[in-house]
Structures are given as C-alpha cells and as structure tokens.
Design brief:
Layout lengths: L10 E7 L8 E7 L17 H14 L2 E7 L1 H7 L1 H14 L7 E5 L10 E4 L2 H4 L1 H24 L5 H4 L5 H10 L10 H6 L4
Parallel strand pairs: 1-4, 4-5
Antiparallel strand pairs: 1-2, 2-3
Helix pairs in contact: 1-5, 2-3
C-alpha cells in the first residue's frame, strides 16, 4: 500500500514503544526530518539490528530539524490505562518539539488530541520515514532504560526481555515479586502482588 503524504511543510512523525511490557514507562518520540539531509535505511525499529538502530539513533538526532521524546510513567499507566497513557505520552512528545509541525502522522489507528491536524497511519513505522525515525528514537531510549533497570534489579533479566511478559520475566515476577517500576494494573503483576 502506498502512503500519500499530506500537503504540509513541517510534518512530524510519532511512534511509541512499550505498550506491551509489564514494567517501565511507555516512551514516545516525535520527529520532523530535514528534506535536505536524507537518512538512508529508515524502517520500523523492530526490523533493525540493535547495532543499526544505535547508528540511526545518532544520525536522526544529528540530521532531523527537531525531535522530542515523551513518556508516561507506570503510575500514569495504572491510573489512565495503557491506551490513554500512550496518547498522553504522544501529546507530550509533540508538545516538546521546538518547531511546531503543520501536520502530524501517528503510527497506529488512533490519534491523540493535538493542536494541529493529525492522521493515524496503520503500519506507519514501515511506510512513513518520520514515523520510522520516531520508532527508532523511542525504542533505543526505552531499551537503554531497561538496561539501566537491569543493573538496579539484576534478578529479573530486564536487559534481555525489555520488560515484556516472557516466560523468564513471569517466572522472576512470581519468585521475586514486583518492583516499584512494574505496572500494577497489568494482570501478571496483579497476580504477583496478590491482587489478581
């Protein structure tokens, strides 16, 4: 499917990482690319090797007209639910841009409330360069946070599974209990806390 870009000067792409994990923030990024400085190899961050993502992460930060990160913490996810927390984190990313975009393209099937026109693009991280760039910034940022969390809580394997509910994570959650960074509203965490 070919994606047709809207007629606009400054287009921001927005994507999120971390809706599925049981621990940590949902991290979003908004990116306005510079047409004069193309970046080769932009694609959905999940399809790139870690090494390639890291290289592109620095190139995006260097060449983009502007970029911004947004986030919603585990407490906000528990209060709002993951969908509303993701929308809030996306709003924060767009509001953090130093240039105000004329149009915003969001990965997925729904848009947060924004001050400018926006369009949701299903599989946008594969179709829209700006969304691909946002997905890379968000993923590298969140993966680094999981590596840091792994140092604080070495028993859980956060650096490996990035907080997703793998067999290892569920096993560690059952034996070690939940950390303060776990999302208490998610069923496996509720069970580990004896709330489910």
């Amino acid at each position: 499917m070919d994606f047709v870009y809207p007629q606009a000067n400054l287009i921001a792409g927005v994507d999120e990482v971390g809706r599925g994990p049981l621990v940590g923030a949902v991290v979003t990024a908004a990116v306005i690319l510079d047409p004069a400085k193309p970046i080769a190899g932009l694609m959905d961050s999940k399809k790139l090797t870690e090494k390639r993502r890291e290289a592109l992460y620095w190139e995006i930060k260097e060449k983009a007209l502007c970029w911004s990160l947004g986030r919603a913490e585990p407490e906000e996810i528990d209060q709002l639910n993951i969908l509303h927390a993701t929308m809030l984190a996306m709003q924060r990313a767009v509001e953090g841009l130093v240039l105000i975009p004329d149009y915003v393209l969001i990965d997925g099937n729904r848009c947060p409330a924004l001050a400018m026109p926006a369009q949701a693009v299903v599989k946008g991280d594969s179709l829209v360069a700006e969304i691909s760039a946002a997905s890379i910034l968000a993923k590298v940022t969140r993966d680094r946070e999981m590596a840091e969390l792994d140092k604080q809580f070495p028993g859980y394997g956060f650096a490996q599974h990035k907080g997703y509910p793998t067999a290892l994570h569920l096993e560690k959650l059952a034996s070690l209990g939940a950390t303060e960074h776990h999302r208490k509203s998610f069923a496996p965490v509720k069970r580990a806390l004896g709330l489910g």
